[in-house]
Write a structure and sequence with these properties.
- This is Inner membrane protein YgaP-like transmembrane domain-containing protein.
- InterPro entries: YgaP-like_TM.
- With 86 residues, this protein is mainly alpha-helical.
- The chain has one domain.
- Helix content is 74%, strand content 0%.
- It contains three helices and no strands.
- Helix 1 packs antiparallel against helix 2.
- The radius of gyration is 20 Å and the shape is elongated.
């Protein structure tokens, strides 16, 4: 029923994402306390939380989309190279 997610980022990349996510979350939380009328702080806090979650799970959906796109383009290039009309 559920598809198992394979990690597509490395350990070092995951640690960087966790660190950057916590830093972004803490900075924007402090900034939101000083300026509560700004709505963009909540958006940045959610982006930081998303980066922390990507680091913990070691799966990035954007990286997965790029990798599948690259595989699809490689297959098209191989098909184009095999067909030579001259």
């Amino acid at each position: 029923m559920f598809k198992r997610i394979k990690p597509n980022i490395g350990i070092l990349n995951a640690m960087v994402r966790i660190t950057a996510g916590f830093t972004l979350m803490s900075y924007c939380t402090i900034r939101a306390l000083k300026r509560p009328y700004s709505d963009t702080n909540i958006l940045w806090i959610m982006i930081g939380a998303m980066k922390v979650a990507e680091g913990i799970v070691r799966y990035c959906p954007v990286t997965a989309l790029v990798q599948t796109g690259m595989k699809a383009n490689d297959g098209k290039k191989e098909q184009e190279q095999t067909f030579n009309p001259s």
